[in-house]
Specification:
This protein is of the alpha+beta class and about 180 residues long. It is built from eight helices and four strands, in the order H-H-H-H-H-H-E-H-E-E-E-H.
Length: about 180
């Protein structure tokens, strides 16, 4: 989930550039590589180290991202210059969300009490696709507090079919009936 407004803005700007140029796929690959490079623990330490010059950080970045779209490299340089390399994974995520939205693909976070099997995940994705009218990619999470059933979040929509919420609703009805 993207927490930083700046990351979303960088992702949106990158998407606009890539879309105008018809280079969404190279940008997606380049941003994924940039995110992996800057998220690597050793690289993160180097990028935060004040004793290492910006020029040295730039050279290291250019070597690590050799071969990516030149504009992706420019974005990486900008992040190094501004000390914002930690945003790279969120920028890549924001960009990919926009590409997927344009392609009619939605991402759903599905929370269950126990891990979903591949077949169950496919069945949930198919049902959510019917509901949303989009192709759905499921990211499964486990939360034993759900007790049973599932909670699905697609964008800003939540479908709560958990046993926990059903028990809470039953509790409210019983309290209202006894009042």
């Amino acid at each position: 989930m993207i927490r930083e407004i700046a990351a979303r803005r960088y992702g949106e700007a990158a998407f606009q550039i890539a879309r105008e140029r018809g280079t969404e796929e190279p940008w997606s690959e380049g941003l994924s590589l940039m995110a992996a490079v800057f998220a690597h623990p050793e690289m993160a330490v180097v990028m935060q180290e004040a004793r290492i010059s910006t020029d040295d950080k730039m050279r290291l970045t250019e070597r690590a991202l050799e071969g990516v779209d030149p504009l992706v490299l420019n974005l990486a340089r900008l992040l190094v210059h501004r000390g914002r390399t930690a945003l790279a994974p969120q920028i890549a995520e924001a960009f990919q969300e926009l590409v997927d939205a344009e392609r009619g693909i939605a991402h759903a976070v599905v929370t269950t009490a126990v891990p979903l099997s591949e077949a169950e995940a496919r069945a949930v994705a198919e049902k959510l696709s019917e509901i949303s009218g989009k192709q759905v990619v499921v990211e499964a999470q486990v939360d034993e507090g759900v007790i049973g059933g599932l909670i699905a979040r697609i964008g800003d929509k939540i479908i709560d079919g958990s046993t926990r919420s059903q028990l809470a609703a039953l509790k409210r009805r019983l309290q209202e009936a006894s009042a």
